[in-house]
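ARCHIVE CARD
Drawer: 12
Card no.: 0347
Subject: one protein chain, sequence and derived structure
Cross-reference: see card 0346
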Amino acid sequence: MAKNRRKKFSIANFILVALLTAFGIVLSVCSFNIPFTSYTYNGFAKSISLGLDLAGGISVVYDCDISNDSNTQDLDTAIDATVERLTSLITKDYSEATITRQGGSRIRIEVPSVTDSDKIFDLIGDPTPLYMTLTQGSDAEKRIVGTDINDVQVAYQKDDSGEFKYGVTLKFSKAGADKFASLTEDAANGEKKIYIYLGEVDDDADLVLTCEQKISGGSTFISGSFETYDDAHNYALKIMSGTFNVKLDLLESSVISATLGAKALKLAIIGGLVGLVLIMILLMIRYGDLGALAAFALTIYIVLMLFFLQAISFVQLTLPGLAGIILSIGMAVDGTVIIFERIREEYRSGKKIPLSTKIGFKRAFWPIFDSNITTIMTAIVLYILGTASIQGFAITLLIGIVLSMFMNLAILRLFVKWYLPINSIKPNRLRLPKQVRAYKEPNEVVVGGDANE
């Protein structure tokens, strides 16, 4: 009776996991409108961010030199600060854009899935220096420069009539906050205006502000003649483009078609699916029911891989990233084979199926753990030190290896544990080899034999 209960419990567990896996497959590949809402669900696979080589887009490379208004003469520091500011500027509108250093003095900007490149080039192609002064003219003292500003955001506030007006919120650095407090104090005490220039300082300021009191909070709201959100947004972008720590000289720019990338992605998906199905078939031929359990676990592995690729915000799938996924699948299968061969060795030595599986997983743990840990360490180093394409390979490899360890050491082990109440006495269903000798339990005493033997 207890054996039947365990068998029914195992079958119920397999059915439940199979239903959850089927649901995960639907969530991974299907798109549908959610009832009673205007939201369309696109599936894990379609929600994965694609890199430039797969989605197409624009690629821009700039050479950097120290700006006249930079708060540092260290080029490395200035470039790092500019990368951070460019990232803040561009990702507000293009969340999948990547901005990275290239070589010693260059910055590469890649924006996937962009058809109108003019907006990007207008935004970052001609950065304009920013100044704040209390007087007009070319001799005006530049009290605040662009590098004193950390961030710029569009905002809105109520005016005296109770209507909402669009404007721009400036957030200053620590040094910039002190400068702005001093500037506003001098402006308020002297009943002067604050002039904001985007470009050369001359008689025509881009914006003229009035200030009635000292502002010391590290940020301020600027309300200009912005009639719409787009007006304020465009002005915020201009200000942000004046906060770079370096001068940017355009070296190269290109628009990459998505046609080649889409074809490569399609072929990679087809090839991957065909290879995965062949692997599952070979596992079932070689290991019988154990191979079927491995195929089940691999299916869960693929669903989890798709989920994490779309859930982790900084992951972008590239052609090298596809290579990382394929390599991690290969290592997952390799770990499965190690486990099953250990089980076969234990059974061949005379142990029963339950004990063979228990010892087989135990003996396979450290070889799998050691090989995967070294690969994980390699992937981390590649991600930290590599270029953008190498990072794409490293991050997918890292995710895949972690999931493969979870699949082999947790999911597959649990499946085998559930399977044993269903079959623990029929080795032919597991394609186990013939036993070469009977297994003798530790401290086992053999009785009934000849004392002289």
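Annotation on reverse: The chain is about 50% helix and 15% strand. Residues 257-430 form a domain with the Multidrug efflux transporter AcrB transmembrane fold fold (CATH 1.20.1640.10).
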